[in-house]
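Input:
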Amino acid sequence: MSSTVDAVPPSRAASPPPTTPPRQRPSYRLGRWDITYSPYLYIAPFFVLFGIFGLFPLLYTAYVSLFDYELLSGTKEFAGLENYRVLMADAQFWNAAYNTVGIFILSTVPQLIVALLLANLLNRQMRARTLLRMGILIPNITSVAAVGIIFALIFADRYGLINWLLGTVGVDPVAWRDNRYASWFAVAFMVDWRWTGYNALIYLGAMQAIPKDLYESASLDGASAWRQFWAITVPLIRPTILFTVIISTIGGFQIFTEPLMYGFGLVRGGADHQFQTLAMYIYERTFTGNAEYGYGSAMSWLLFMMIIIFALINFVLIRRSVKGDEK
Amino acid sequence: MSTAQTLPRSVAPLPPTQRRRRRTPGARLWQASPLTYLALIIGCVLSIFPIIWSFIIASRDNSAVYEMPSTPGDQLFTNLDRMLANEDAAFVYGLVNSAVVSSVVTISVIFFSSLAGFAFAKLRFRGSNALLLVIILTMMVPTQLGVIPLYLMMVDLGWTGTLQAVIVPFLVQGFGVFMMRQYAMSAISDELIEAARLDGCSTWRIYWNVVLPVLRPAAAVLGLLTFMQTWNEFLWPFIVLTPDTPTVQYSLKILSSGPYQTDYVALFAGTALATLPLLVVFIIFGRQIIGGIMEGAVKS
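Output:
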């Protein structure tokens, strides 16, 4: 690596006067080229690699989506918007979209609200501060695959931990997979479990940047802690809330591993696809069976559009509602 | 911009004002009450319990998986042996592959992020603000949706089933660049750079000999976060690798499906072993990791 960046000599060759005064230091000879252009060399690796492996494939997805492109049959023909037309009538796609949105709401709304409350509790003088913070962050270091496996057993139908607990208080066991909404809940629960602490720490970071004087004058005015939380804390960390909402939207709509592991590693997402998400369905059509790259790309591109739309909707919603609390 | 605010909390010396307890009327609000502790402890228990419970299951006999309440058994090593002996899952190979992939990606992300972060923080060049904005925006691009062309690319390159397929696409990270830039802004004074220039250092020398040593604490945090993230990556390895060359997460997937899915205790021995390395890292460096995450929240 160093060889590319050390390759500064061209600048020396280009330096103007052949008779360099002896007092001039080498830095001035390296001078202009190094100072004007080397910064671009330093940032170039990011843009080149991101361009090739991040941006290009994403944009190219739109192009592939216009083809009838299958691995198994070997076809690759331009098909215009045919894939999208088929997509509109594909009941399994819309079922997956329904599941994805449902799981997304169940996994994001409680998660961010609880994270906000946890952050508020952590934002105090306390003993064992680091220990408590580590405690709530620990789910985030477990891998998604492991989380899926562990919770698949916790939410097992017949002998699972949750159903056993429900049994001890006299509640009938829940069909955690066969019932669509129960399965959504279980999948969303994994996401909540893994990400709540992480988001709480992000909020905590933002809360600590709020000047304490604001709270002091508010409590002199007799505002309760609860009132201060909604009137000072939440509005002031609004940019951070917006950030987490957008990131959660982007991540939540692509949910794949949790429902996959929950369904014992099968992409069909339950006997009736009751918890098959869009990412799982895209995988099913693209990387199993006929390997329909064109159709899978069309679905990916539509999912991309959905993410943008939902991110914008959430952005506007949060901006409005948080502002409303300022009164 | 004051230095104390932009330094990552994990690595900056704590400014004295944060430690001082205030004696103003608001101060009582900032003392944690017993109820606060109670709520947080409940949160911690809920967070830790599933992990401990999975370790307990890993120590039991298959016939006792469903026995409630769950108490630890004595079969942990038997289960581990059986799990490791499973040739289809190739768990040890998966662990080694994950270690290689995560290490290479981590070193690369640290290197390219500190290089670009330094350039954005301390060098003046045309278009730097716009380019920095582009980097921030890349953090919000769902690149995962481009996996189909990316996969076709790997097929063309002949990389499917090889480790470079899960390394090369992850060599850079927008978040890393941004984080290093934030740290470099506050930790490195312009005078230092200027002095190095007067001594005749090229920009590259300044980066290597002056900037990189100063960035080390932030680089460590970025490294920890990147390592954990890469270790836990699932979807892309699952798509592009084959069972012959698994990462540890892929091995878990093999253990959890097909003929082995009924051997719960071996599977849970697998999840325990896959989680253990990160658990150790977390226990040693928890404070730094927390600092890194909290710092991500404070935007300039």
